[in-house]
Structure formats: C-alpha cells, structure tokens
Amino acid sequence: MIWSFVKVALFVAAIAALTLGATWLSDSAEGIRVAVAGMEFTLGALQAAIAAVLLILGVWLFLKVLGLIVAVLKFLSGDETAISRYFDRNRERKGYEALAEGMMALASGEGKLAQTRASRAERLLHRPELTDLISAQAAEMQGDRKRAIEIYKRLLSDDRTRFAGVRGLMHQKLAEGDTETALRLAEKAFEMKPRHEEVQDILLRLQTESGNWAGARTTLGAEARQGRLPRDVHKRRDALLALQEAKEVFKEGNSIEAREAAIAANKASPDLIPAAVMAARGYVAKGEPKSALRVLRKAWEVQPHPDLAAAFAGMVPEESPIDRLSRFETLFKANPGAEETVLTRTELLIAAEDFPGARRVMGDLAERHPTARTLTLMAAIARGEGADEAEVRGWLTRAVSASRGPQWICDKCQTVAADWSPVCGACGGFDTLSWREAPDTPPLPHGAEMLPLIVGRPAPVQEEEDTPPPPRQPVDVTPPEPEPAPKPAPPAEPEETDPFAEPPSVAAARGIKA
Question: Nearest 5°: phi and psi at 76?
Fold first, then answer.
C-alpha cells in the first residue's frame, strides 16, 4: 500500500518536472542557429531538445539497419551463422517459454500438456539434456513406460545426463518387478553418486532382499559415514548383516569362519537374540562353555527369549530334569522378574514333576496375562496334580482362543513371522522384526472347530438300537515318568557335528508332551 503510493507520487513528480522543463525551454529567448549549405536554421530551446532526441533515435535505428545489412552481406558471402544468430534469439525465447510451461505442467500433474510443451521446446532449442527429462517424466505420468525407457536410454549417451538415465531406468525396472536388473542399475548409480540418499536406500533394500549381505554392509557403511544413521543403529544393523553373512558362510561348509563371524556380531550388538544364540553355540563348539554362558546371561538380562533358553539347554543335552532345573538358576538370576523366566522355570518344574512348586511359581500369571502358553502350562499342572478332567478341559478351552503371546512381528506391516530374519517376508522391511505381543491378537483360526480335538467331544445321547460311539481320546498332557540317569557309555571316537544346528525346543528338551 505504501509502496504503491510512493510510485504514484514519483510518477506525478516526474510529469511535473518534465512540464516545468518544457515550459522553461519554451519561454527561453535563447536558441540554436544552424547553417547548412547556405541555409540557416534557428531553433528555440524546446525545439533543440526535441531535435537532439530525434537525432539519437535516428542514429540507433541506423546502426540496427546497418547491422542487418552487414549480416545479410555475410550470409550471402557464405557465413550461414550470421543471419541465423539474428533470428535465433526469438526462437530461444519461445523455446525457454515452452520449457517453463512444460515444467509447470509436470508440477500440476498434466502429463499430456507437459509432453506437448517438451516437444515444442525440443524443436525450438535442440537441447535434449533439458527436454528429454521432461519428456520422460511426462511419459511416466501418462503410463507410457516404453517411451520413458526409450528416452532414459538416450540420456545414457551424455555424461551430464547419464546418472539421471540410470536412475530413471532403475525406477522403471522396479515398477516392472525386474529386481535383478534394478539391482545392477542401483549398483551402477551408487558407483556414480555414492552419497545419493535415494539410491542408497533402494540399493540396500534390493541387496537385503537378494541376500547380498556383504554388499549391504558396504552400503550401510556409506549411510553411516554420511551421518544418516545414529551410531548405535548402525552397529546393530551391521551386526545383523554380519550374522546373516555368517549363516551363508556356514552353508558353504566353512563353520570356523561362520563361528567367528557370529561371535563378532554378538560383540557388536549383544541384545540381538539370533546373534547371541549363534555365538553361544560357536563358543560351545570351541570348547568355551563359560564364554557361551556369559553371552546368554547378558542377552537374557536384556530380553529373555525361548531361543536363549533352548541354546542354554543345548549346552548339556544329556541331564536329568532336576539337574537342568538347578543349572538354569544361573540363567534365571540375570532377570528373575521377567515373564519368560517364570514360564521357563515352570516348564522345568513340570518336567521334574514338582507340580505344586510349578503352581506357586506361576502364581496369578494365567489371570493377569492369559496366553496360550500360560494356560496350557496350567492345564499340565492341573493334570499332574490329579485335578478333575473338567478343570483340565477348561484350561485348554481358554488356551484355544487366548493370545499367542510374544512373537516375531514386523513393526512396518504387523505381519507375524514364524522365525526371525533380517528382512520381513511380507513387506521387505529391513530390521523391522521385533519380539513382542501383537496389540490385538486374533483368536486361533477355526478355533471352534478345533475344540473337540483338543478337549474331547461330549458323547451324544444314543438310542438303544444305535451303536455306541467309540471312546474319545483326549490329548495326554501328563508329564512322562522321570527317566533313569543314563549309564556312562564307553568313550567313542568324536564325530563331526554341526555346531550351529538348531537344538530341540526347550519343552522337548525337558520332556514335556504337548
């Protein structure tokens, strides 16, 4: 508002100054006398000023016409660029206007208009490094992948646009589902610009999905050096990739390298449960049970997990239930109040046939946090104490529709995975699986149909002439009789064993029948 007023005031002042100047010149008695070829001209002050302005305009126009005449003469003498430069300025102006309109059309989502403006700009400018980018993106917007790929391939011939061409082709192959070609293009783009964030993310995802763990560690290191990842996150993910790389090495038969890699991965990230399990088995294979115990205790202190208990049980596979319960106390002391500690101790007590002790350890856990595991353990305790069949059935009936408890769940897509892996099999997310309980766990599919199989179907009332139904056979949850201690066997030749083979589950190791 103020600036507009200032501009109006300045315009009025300029008009007033010109008017006063013209009035002063017209009233002035002085003038200019010009004598040319025997003729004499007398000009007043105002007439002299107007003549000077007209003279300047005439000189400027004469120079322009002279320049055009010179350009035409040079064109006629063989210089084709002389007159072309004279007309190129207008063509460039129109070309850049079309280019700007094409960019605005792309931003507005008008693919057809952007393609039209890009074609016009190409005809006027002959600058493919500028117009091809707009044409390719317009073709993508219209769904014309064939034309987009053709244009991106043209960009590969110019050093200035090669990266844009590789990146565009990479996105096209990803859209087509050709991840193998997309991976090669991503590696090429990463080689050209290793600090490009989008290329880093896509390359890391494709490398983890294809199992290229060594390459993924290189890409992850580039992200860390660029400051995109916190130090602790980088250490964890690098340990995760090292663990997967160790598993691949073990598949090739080199168990020593796999063992050392697993131990290194555990040192880098002690809270990574799969790394702790594999490192503990590696220490056992090396004959260092104390180191294995230290690894498992540290991981159990951070997050108790059934796999850790299975690895700890596998350290001494041949032992009685009483001895195993006593040995596990060393592990339980690391995190005595955890729910997994309570459940594992209960399973061991059931295996040792100490059912009253198992009930005391469980306490009110089955009421505070009813899961399929806690309710099944209560059914085993009730059966072991000689409770009525109705009580055992009641616990098992509740277990069918109860929560599954903690599981490996993807934080990105909430998919439940049977086993841990660095990449989610559903959404491809990297390092997204966490051991937790789903917030809204659905009941077991077809749980109502499975109830008769678990708790037994009540016998229907039969007529006298009907054949009586066969007796139902409920699932036996009674723990087995304790096995006598094995007799010492004579020493045998050591056999080559698999130090990373999965041991039986904790329940099976303790002799619990499900």
Answer: -70, -25
Q: Is the dihedral of CA 119, 121, 126, 131 positive or negative?
A: negative
Domain with CATH 1.25.40.10 in the chain: 230-318
Please compute, for residue 463, the number of CA atoms within 13 A of its CA located in the half-sphere on the CB side: 2
362: helix, strand or coil: helix
CATH of domain 230-318: 1.25.40.10
Using an 8 Å Cβ cutoff, are 245 and 278 in contact?
Answer: no
Instruction: Encode 384-437 in three state secondary structure.
Output: HCCCCHHHHHHHHHHHHHCECCCEEEECCCCCEECCCCCECCCCCCECCEEEEC
**DSSP result, 293-359:** HHHHHHHHHH---HHHHHHHHHTS-S--HHHHHHHHHHHHTTSTTSHHHHHHHHHHHHHTT-HHHHH
206 vs 460: CA distance, rounded Å: 59
State whether the Cα torsion 479-480-486-492 is positive or negative: negative
Mutual orientation of helices 179-192 and 213-225 as an angle, nearest 10°? 40
Structure tokens at 254: 């080199």
**pTM exceeds 0.85, yes or no:** no
**Tens of pLDDT, residues 497-510:** 444 444 443 444 34
Q: Model confidence over 298-347: pLDDT tens digits?
A: 999 988 999 999 999 999 988 999 999 999 999 999 999 899 999 999 99
Which residues neighbour 202 within 8 Å (Cβ) at sequence distance 6 or greater? 170, 174, 182, 186
Exposure b/e, 307-346, CB count within 10 A at least 16 = b: bbbbbbbbbeeebbbeebbebbeebbebbeebbbbbbbbb
CATH architecture of structural domain 156-228: Alpha Horseshoe (1.25)
Contact 302, 273 (CB under 8 A): no
408's CB contacts (< 8 A; 6+ apart) are 416, 417, 418, 419, 420, 433, 434, 435
Joined together, the tokens standing for residue 229 give 């990842």
